[in-house]
Design goal:
The complex is a heterodimer. By secondary structure, chain A is mostly helical. Chain A contains ten helices and no strands. By secondary structure, chain B is an alpha+beta fold. Chain B has two domains: about 40 residues, no CATH class; about 130 residues, no CATH class. Chain B is built from eight helices and seven strands; from the N terminus they run ααααββααβββααββ. A seven-stranded mixed beta sheet of chain B has the order 1-2-5-4-3-6-7. Chain B starts with 9 loop residues before the first helix and ends in a 9-residue tail after the last strand. Chains A and B meet through helix 1, helix 2, helix 3, helix 7 and helix 8 of A and helix 1, helix 2 and helix 3 of B.
C-alpha cells in the first residue's frame, strides 16, 4: 500500500522538476539547479554507492550532474528528470567499469545465470553471515540495479528506460532478485532458530 | 509512460512466493541506507560548486541564428581574403633579339601585368618591341614544335649567376635569363635541397624546356656544351 501512496506523491514533484530544468535551459540560473540538486543528489549518490564505493560514487555523481547541466538543452521532457539523471549516472558507472576492468565489465553486463541455481552449500555459507544489506550486495549486479531503482520509486517503464532493456527483462531480474533474497533470509532465519 | 510505481513490485510479488515482509524490509533497508549514506555537507558543497560552474550548452533552437552569424562572418572573411590576396602569378617569357642572339627572359609576373600589356590602347615603343618579339618567339616555338614533334627539348647550357638571376647560354645562340623570383619558385618545388645546391655550383647545366618554351627541368651538366664552329 505504501508503494502506491509514494508513487502518487512522486508524480507532481517530477513535473515540477521538468519545469525547473526547462527554466534552467532558458535562464541558466544556479538557483534552479540548486533545487534539482536538493531533490536528487542524495538519491543518485546512494544508487551509485550501492554499486561502487564512496569515492567513485561521489566522482560519478559530479560527472552526472555536470552532464545533465551541459546537455540540459537537449532535454525534451520525454522522461522525468530523475530518470534522465539516473540514466546518465548508470552510463557513467558502466563506462567506469569498462575502463577499470574491460573483460569483467562485459561479464557483468551479460545476462547472469539464475542465482537460485547456485549450489546449496554456497548459498548457506553466504546466508550465515548475511543480513539484508549484505544480501543485497551479494545479488548479481543487474538484479541489484533493478531492485535499487525500484526501491527508488521508478516504475517498470522507467527502469526499462534507464537500463536499456525491455520491461519483461526488468521483471525477470526483479523476480530473481526477490527470490534470491527470500532464500537467503529464510535460511538465515532457520539457522538462527536452530541456534536458539 | 507508465508512472505506476507499484507496477514493479506487485507483479513480482505475485509471481513469486515472496513474503510481504520482504517488501517492508526492503523499504526499511532502503530508507535507512539512504539516511546513512548521504553526501555530507562538505561533499555536497564541493559537488555543488563544481556543478554550478558549468553552463548549459546552447539549445538546439538557438543554433539557427548562430549558424547564420557564422556563415555571414565566413562570407565576409572570404571576400576580404580574395580582396587582399596577392595577384596570381604566371610564368612569363619575354623574347628579345640582340644581333644574332635571341634572349629569353623567364620570370614570374602578375597576371594583371600581362593583361595590361596586351590590352594597352596605345602601346609604347617598348611594348611594340615586345609584341614584335612575341611574334618572333611564336615563330620560334612553332619551329621548335615542328622539329621536336612536340617533345620536350633538352640542351646543354652554360650557367652564369648574375644579380638578376641566372644567365643560361646554349650553342644555338639562345640566351635565357632566369629571374630570381622564378629561381626561388623552382627552388621551393625542389624537394632535395642538396640537388639544388649542386645546380648552383655547377658551371654547366642540362636545360629541359616544354613545348611552350617554359623551363621544365634543370640538371647539373657533366661536361660543357659541344658547340659546332
Amino acid at each position: 500500500m505504501g508503494w502506491k501512496w509514494l508513487g502518487r506523491l512522486a508524480g507532481p514533484v517530477q513535473v515540477e522538476s521538468r519545469l525547473l530544468l526547462q527554466q534552467y535551459q532558458q535562464q541558466a540560473d544556479p538557483a534552479l539547479l540548486q533545487q534539482l540538486f536538493l531533490r536528487y543528489a542524495d538519491a543518485l549518490y546512494h544508487f551509485l554507492l550501492q554499486q561502487s564505493d564512496a569515492e567513485l560514487a561521489q566522482d560519478l555523481s559530479q560527472q552526472a550532474w555536470i552532464q545533465l547541466m551541459l546537455h540540459a538543452g537537449s532535454y525534451q521532457g520525454q522522461s522525468s528528470v530523475k530518470t534522465w539523471l539516473f540514466s546518465i549516472g548508470r552510463n557513467l558507472l558502466i563506462d567506469e567499469w569498462r575502463r577499470q576492468r574491460p573483460h569483467a565489465a562485459q561479464e557483468l553486463l551479460d545476462e547472469l545465470p539464475d542465482p537460485a541455481a547456485k549450489p546449496l552449500q554456497q548459498l548457506l555459507a553466504a546466508e550465515q553471515s548475511a543480513n539484508l544489506d549484505l544480501a543485497i550486495q551479494r545479488l548479481p549486479l543487474l538484479q541489484r540495479e533493478a531492485l535499487l531503482l525500484q526501491l527508488e520509486d521508478f516504475s517498470l517503464a522507467q527502469i526499462s528506460e534507464i537500463t536499456g532493456v525491455g520491461q519483461e527483462t526488468v521483471k525477470t531480474r526483479l523476480r530473481y532478485a526477490r527470490h534470491q533474497l527470500q532464500l537467503w533470509l529464510t535460511a538465515t532465519a532457520e539457522q538462527t532458530h536452530e541456534h536458539r | 509512460m507508465n508512472t505506476d510505481k507499484s507496477a514493479g513490485v506487485t507483479p513480482a510479488a505475485k509471481d513469486t512466493d515472496v513474503a510481504p515482509q520482504l517488501d517492508v524490509a526492503l523499504r526499511q533497508w532502503h530508507q535507512r541506507s539512504k539516511q546513512q549514506h548521504r553526501l555530507d555537507k562538505a561533499q555536497r558543497q564541493a559537488l555543488q560548486q563544481l556543478v554550478l560552474k558549468e553552463k548549459p550548452l546552447r539549445r538546439s533552437r538557438d543554433w539557427q541564428p548562430a549558424v547564420q552569424q557564422v556563415m555571414a562572418l565566413a562570407a565576409c572573411i572570404l571576400v576580404l581574403v580574395v580582396w587582399l590576396s596577392p595577384p596570381e602569378l604566371m610564368y612569363q617569357i619575354e623574347q628579345q633579339q640582340q644581333g644574332l642572339y635571341t634572349i629569353q627572359i623567364h620570370q614570374l609576373a602578375p597576371v594583371a601585368t600581362a593583361e595590361q600589356q596586351t590590352v594597352a590602347a596605345s602601346p609604347t615603343r617598348a611594348q611594340q618591341r615586345q609584341q614584335q618579339y612575341q611574334l618572333v618567339y611564336q615563330d620560334y616555338l612553332r619551329s621548335q614544335h615542328e622539329s621536336q614533334q612536340q617533345a620536350a627539348r633538352t640542351v646543354a647550357v652554360w650557367r652564369e649567376a648574375t644579380a638578376a638571376g641566372w644567365q643560361l647560354q646554349s650553342c644555338d645562340r639562345l640566351q635565357l635569363q632566369v629571374h630570381t623570383d622564378l629561381l626561388a619558385a623552382l627552388r621551393q618545388q625542389q624537394a632535395d635541397q642538396q640537388q639544388w645546391q649542386q645546380l648552383e655550383q655547377s658551371r654547366f647545366l642540362l636545360l629541359t624546356t616544354g613545348t611552350q618554351g617554359q623551363i621544365l627541368a634543370l640538371k647539373p651538366g657533366i661536361e660543357a656544351p659541344h658547340c659546332a664552329i
